[in-house]
Design a protein that fits this description.
By secondary structure, the chain is of the alpha+beta class. It has a domain of about 55 residues. The protein is about 50% helix and about 5% strand. The chain has 13 helices and 7 strands. Strands 3-2-1-7 form a 4-stranded mixed β-sheet. Helix 1 crosses helix 2, helix 9 runs antiparallel to helix 10 and helix 12 runs antiparallel to helix 13. It is elongated. The relative contact order is 0.09.
């Protein structure tokens, strides 16, 4: 394997962000990202080949025909490919990149539909992008996200009601839900999806049916985490890092900010757990690669997110010890011991105590 230098790591971070909705890179950046991706373990890449892929990109990052409303683009606007401009977006990348594939043998075309639930919600299908501003308000955004997270599964009406209104159910709930579903179908239709086929209804239940090989950012993050775990078991550190970067780039983004319904909070917790695990894997990579200062920063970030997670504190103390910062490692132990005592009334595990004794004897 080629030696990976600081510039490679910087570019691989850019690659992970690019694959999860970042700004458009220049031609030179595309070449660097391709080179870096090969070195950090994306062996499926042959090229980014930006020009041959002309799928949709976020409205804020693309050139499209102006609309009649004062020259502003509508929320659903077809995009005319511009050969002089390198298109932005994960959806533009050659299928060989592998990111976003549900079926890795589906061919070389970009996923038919790409849906982003973290950050700003939007959906892109072929040359059309639908922004969350086109969803039927706050309730429409909740319903859309809930259906996407459970796409392919039949959901009873009461499940949809709970997902949208929680305990604040309107008096005319059936009429309200029917109106919301009707508006959501119009949104799907405007996004280029067949409204009737995409949102099926039968016997009092509804099911969102996305086209084959569709891409959902949260599902991709989970898939990338599994790939990182597999790479960790096989000792393939570059592949581990590549997968962890993609998973972390999604997990660090907000999910339905401002909402507090139980299923939303539960999904945020899953993303937070996923983020911590990806930070662990990134930390392992940097430590393996000799970038201990970066590994230490990631370990500290993971501890700040999950303060009662003992494995994170152990990792942090070991990194400090390896760097020769014995006193700081002892302080890290003392902070954790006090936290456990104050919050839970318990002591650190035998493994942590053994490491503490090692620190005292060093």
């Amino acid at each position: 394997m080629s030696v990976i230098d600081r510039e490679d790591i910087k570019n691989s971070v850019a690659l992970g962000e690019y694959l999860t909705c970042a700004e458009s890179p220049s031609t030179a950046q595309c070449a660097r990202l391709t080179h870096t991706a090969k070195k950090v373990g994306w062996r499926r890449i042959s090229s980014l080949n930006c020009r041959r892929v002309a799928a949709a990109a976020p409205c804020s990052a693309r050139t499209a025909n102006s609309c009649a409303n004062g020259g502003r683009r509508s929320a659903f606007a077809p995009v005319v490919a511009d050969e002089s401009h390198i298109p932005a977006y994960a959806g533009l990348i050659d299928q060989e990149v592998g990111v976003g594939e549900i079926n890795r043998n589906a061919g070389r075309e970009a996923p038919a539909v790409r849906i982003y639930l973290t950050g700003r919600v939007f959906v892109e299908h072929n040359d059309v992008v639908g922004d969350e501003a086109s969803l039927p308000g706050r309730q429409g955004r909740l319903l859309f996200c809930f259906l996407v997270l459970n796409h392919g599964l039949p959901l009873a009406r009461h499940e949809l009601v709970n997902a949208v209104w929680g305990e604040s159910v309107p008096e005319v709930v059936d009429a309200s839900l029917n109106a919301l579903i009707s508006k959501l179908r119009r949104f799907l239709n405007a996004a280029g999806l067949n409204d009737a086929a995409a949102l099926e209804s039968s016997f009092g239940s509804y099911r969102l049916q996305l086209p084959a090989a569709s891409w959902v950012d949260i599902h991709q993050a989970e898939l990338s985490l599994h790939e990182a775990e597999s790479a960790a078991r096989s000792g393939d550190m570059p592949a581990l890092y590549a997968a962890a970067i993609v998973a972390g780039a999604v997990a660090k983004r907000s999910f339905l900010a401002g909402e507090s319904l139980p299923w939303v909070v539960a999904q945020r917790e899953r993303l937070r757990t996923l983020l911590v695990r990806t930070l662990d894997y990134q930390c392992d990579f940097y430590q393996w690669h000799g970038e201990r200062d970066v590994a230490l920063k990631l370990a500290q970030e993971a501890v700040a997110i999950e303060q009662l997670r003992e494995t994170g504190h152990l990792r942090l103390m070991r990194l400090l010890l390896e760097q020769g910062n014995r006193a700081e490692a002892l302080r890290a132990y003392d902070r954790f011991r006090r936290l456990l005592r104050d919050e839970l009334g318990v002591s650190p595990s035998a493994e942590t105590e053994a490491l503490y004794l090692t620190l005292l004897k060093t």
